[in-house]
Amino acid sequence: MEFFEIFIAGVFINNILLAQFLGNCPFLGTSKKMETAVGMAMAVIFVLVMAGMITWIVDTYLLKALDVEYLRTVSFILVIASLVQFVEMFLKKSIPGLYAGLGIFLPLITTNCAVMGACLLNISKEYSFLSALVSSFSYAVGFGLALILFAGVRERINLARVPKPLQDTSIGLVTAGIIALTFMSFKGMV
Amino acid sequence: MISALFFMLGIGAVCGIVLSLSSKVFYVYEDPRIALVENNLAAANCGGCGYAGCSSAAEAVVTGLAPPSVCVISGKEGVEEVAKIMGVDVGAAESLLSYNMCEGGNRADDKYYYMGISSCKAMTAAFGGKRVCGVGCLGFGDCVKACQFDAVKLGPNGYPVVDDDKCVGCGACQQACPKDIIKVTTLSEQLMKFNQEQDALAPCAQTCPAEINIPRYINQLREGKYKEAVQTIRMRNPLPLSCGRVCPHPCEDECRRGIEDEAVSINQLKRFVSDFEMNSGSRIPIKCAPDTGKKSGCSRWWPCRSFLCIFPTANRTPGVYL
């Protein structure tokens, strides 16, 4: 039940894009086409779960053990960046199909604020390893959900008659605000 | 302070060692020429070559699946560089350009008031678009949206204008256009061919308002089959005698023989063969199915292109158009 609550909270209530407002650059950058949005969502799920695991391990067995918790942000950046590099190499060798699908998106999100923020949130809530895993996964799913929803809306807006000064990013930001408002209705569910 | 330094140094060292080891363990051999070829492509990732991006195009060049001239943007120098890397001959090639076939645009009247999605594709779904002209430009600029090089603009008259300097011939506009108005082809191909669409009809037959099968009746005249020639003309036009005299013969303006010297005297031939029928003293009978005792009529109310309408309709009277 605890895991279920964490999952719902991560996907809807504390949605990383629309409630926490982290990772807005890929949110606006990769949402112009559904295809890239889906690729980005998959890459975030992949990276965030791995990053959630490794940062929990680093935090518990290195930072807390050696009493250097003030180095959390710096060391997380280093660890996540190396991890993504490592995963990229591993995929290229062992699973070329997955590499071809995720390839261009992996380096894009190496130390994306959504990935970093989700890892820091896990630590600040003092989750156990399993809870941290579920929470990272749910944040990533929330990211994907919001991104794909937004991409769908944006593809439709492309076909509508938008006044010249509002075209492209401006109308995108307005839309993002309205979608974020709808996500506010999940507040207080859990 | 010292502990923090050592801690970060430790983490950095571990990450560095792991990465350098894994770059050896997970090393994938890649042909060094792929990177070289990719450096000489346009790096726009436009997809004009038909591959997913510049890197996959470079891979195709190196594996021999694509010629060195695969990149539509890179120009002569780039192609020569790629050919040098691959050790092959460039060959001569003319660059592709986008050509807009429709110069009607806003000249065509509207059939209805359109209030839907502002895209030519969507409008085509509603009765083939709002224009009375079924083949012309709809003017919503799907081609403009498709162009990644800012080369297509909607002109003042409601049809797209292509900027030849910016156009790279990637073909995105051609794919986007639901009316097949834009063709991506070379300049000489554009000049050599009069008929754009499948090259099925002779130019004279295409321009004839009555759509008479002109090559056929001229051929029948050549073979001396005068009666058959009269029948061929009358299939589309019941009044060859007067048309042979008063027709402004737009067919002769487009006659391909005119490119070489002078156009074939199509109208004069029609006059000759109908005079032959008149002077022979008897009308050549028109084959007709036996009478069924029933009558039929056309109930088209929208603008109709038929040249030979004999039924009065909402906006046409037979006296005017026959």
Could you tell me the CATH topology label of the largest domain in chain B.
Alpha-Beta Plaits
Shape of chain A: globular
Trace the largest sheet of chain B across and list its strands.
1-4
Radius of gyration of chain A: 17 Å
Q: Which strand-content bin applies to the residues of chain B?
A: under 5%
Largest protein interface, residues of each chain: A-B, 22 and 21 residues
Which residue ranges of chain A are poorly predicted, with pLDDT under 50 across at least 5 consecutive positions?
A: none
Q: What is the distance, rounded to the nearest whole angstrom, between the alpha carbons of the first and last residues of chain B?
A: 102 Å
Radius of gyration of chain B: 31 Å
> Roughly how much helix do the residues of chain B carry, as a percent range?
40-55%
Structural class of chain A: mainly alpha
Number of domains of chain A: 1
* Number of DSSP-assigned strands of chain A: 0
Say what oligomer this is: heterodimer
Question: Runs of chain B with pLDDT <50, length 5+?
Answer: 312-322
How does CATH name the architecture of the largest domain in chain B? 2-Layer Sandwich
H-E order of chain A = HHHHHHHH
Q: On the 0-100 scale, what is the average pLDDT of chain A?
A: 87
Mean pLDDT over the full residue set of chain B: 80
- The number of helical segments of chain A is 8
